[in-house]
Specification:
- 4 copies of one chain form a homotetramer.
- By secondary structure, the first copy, chain A, is α+β, with helices and mostly antiparallel strands.
- Chain A has 5 helices and 10 strands.
- Chains in contact: A-B, A-C, A-D, B-C, B-D, C-D.
- Chains A and C meet through helix 1 and strand 7 of A and helix 1 and strand 7 of C.
Amino acid sequence: MTDIDSSSDTQTETGWLSSDQLEIFRANMPLVYVDAVPVRVDGLGNVEEVGMLLRQGADRSISRMVVTGRVLYGERVREALMRHCEKDLGPMALPRVPANPTPFTIAEYFPDPEISGFYDPRHHAVSLAYVVPVDGECEPTQEALDLTWFTPQEAVSDDVVLEMTSGHDRLIRLALAHVGKLP
Amino acid sequence: MTDIDSSSDTQTETGWLSSDQLEIFRANMPLVYVDAVPVRVDGLGNVEEVGMLLRQGADRSISRMVVTGRVLYGERVREALMRHCEKDLGPMALPRVPANPTPFTIAEYFPDPEISGFYDPRHHAVSLAYVVPVDGECEPTQEALDLTWFTPQEAVSDDVVLEMTSGHDRLIRLALAHVGKLP
Amino acid sequence: MTDIDSSSDTQTETGWLSSDQLEIFRANMPLVYVDAVPVRVDGLGNVEEVGMLLRQGADRSISRMVVTGRVLYGERVREALMRHCEKDLGPMALPRVPANPTPFTIAEYFPDPEISGFYDPRHHAVSLAYVVPVDGECEPTQEALDLTWFTPQEAVSDDVVLEMTSGHDRLIRLALAHVGKLP
Amino acid sequence: MTDIDSSSDTQTETGWLSSDQLEIFRANMPLVYVDAVPVRVDGLGNVEEVGMLLRQGADRSISRMVVTGRVLYGERVREALMRHCEKDLGPMALPRVPANPTPFTIAEYFPDPEISGFYDPRHHAVSLAYVVPVDGECEPTQEALDLTWFTPQEAVSDDVVLEMTSGHDRLIRLALAHVGKLP
């Protein structure tokens, strides 16, 4: 899980929040996050491929990961999901946020990797995780080095799992199970 | 719930099934059905309108109803859902069957309207119900007399509910609740 | 939505959080909440009754509401759900938190009641909402004045809806739809 | 997937259905089934163990499998789920059918194992799959030779997967993903 919060000030309802203030929040309150697993679907809605970003994660390692980021003050969950998809996949990705607002799972990230298996050294975050079909052309933006599409079989293979940290490999398996495509 | 099964023979794995044979099935075994609630969504996935067909229902009354029909032998649920959407909404409707195969509810139709509130005088059917966003132009086909789009507020209004039978008004409310838009 | 946060200091990972600090969080970041709709089920899992607390809400009115409260730093969502159920329903309630961690809906509470229909004058909260069967004896504790059980029909009646604020009446309808019991 | 249908006559609304008639249905129409994955949960609802029966499957092999069986004419899905759990786990199992009637997945069994990965040589069945916590003492009944409890880690291990057929190993993984416990 990563975003640019730690390296810059953040806009809030009451103005800009300093990095220092954000650090205090992080040490005291769970944050609200969204995780999005981008997928390609066929004409019947079958998931054919899962997209993963290659980027520097919250733990500073370069690893494969899903789209992820914070929900801002005053922002709807749906808006945050769209904003992070566009930020990470580019403006032509055409993400289709599901009509159902219920996440397929809740990923609880903790600084202690033992608690839930979802790990973020920076904070405790409760992340609402969604599968988001994308129809358009994806171009990784910002810090992402690459975006690669994997078949469900590849996405759960040892090779790919080894390139993932923070529990994102497990999140991919839960997403594939949700859409009935876990091998 | 209606389809053309009662007025014609039906193709199966082992050839054509006669109307008589279908009648025997109907009197002895629950059938597998799908119900689809067509919706229009905005760019963030918010449901803005619900589509309802005006047609002769299983109870022979003219009423507003959702897309509905039987799953055939050898057919995937997803395929049945797409087939019935195209049959009822026309070839340009561009229905988007969700990636998640889980229905938002199970509507159990019985010849006795007291059992579950979902009623079909012809048979016992277990229907998997889905919300299906449609992007294209819908034209009611076959026996449907009309297709009308309603806002969530209109869809649960007394006027519209009065035009529905067989429990379809309740199915609409369950669908709107599922997408977080029940007024 | 209410809890005792505004009237006392709060324990966190890094010690006690002052009321002042909590106020700053509330003005700048969405908080993570859980909502629990207590229900009585029969032997087949059918929801027969919905429990509602009578208490002073976040908007200071006395109204009927569901169990609700904040997720603390370091706390699992499941633990928060159990803690708030025990706090509001008493130690003998025997709440059964579902095995599936996915909420039935996400209730987004804002200081502006127009944004989502879920309203909290104090803050923006993203609340994970669950239906929680309770087997034991419930006794309202803390600030709750009363706990009353309603049939699904009663729970959505005009009389009961009029006694609810903050969107809790809608949350009840979404919960009843989720369990297939919305009238 | 197995039940006693193939070896005996079956009661229906209109009387007893002969084995011959059932064979005709099976060759022409998808049947409605339920699958139940029995689990043990802790006080917070966390799944700690998964129960699997050892019995002769639909493909005649002795294998580990979940509880499964047909929905009868006139029977609610909930009733079928309870009936099959009691039939396979014994009268003291105290299964707790979830309040939410939505299955966690739809398992589509076909005589051709390539279509969906769920296989039944006898027929096409659409099975509604549920996770069912059991509180009491389980004793395998009828044809089951044994009932064994596995941790999530064990349940997805190669050793156990090798003892499963018909796609039941995948159903277990989907069930564990649904409750957030897939390793």
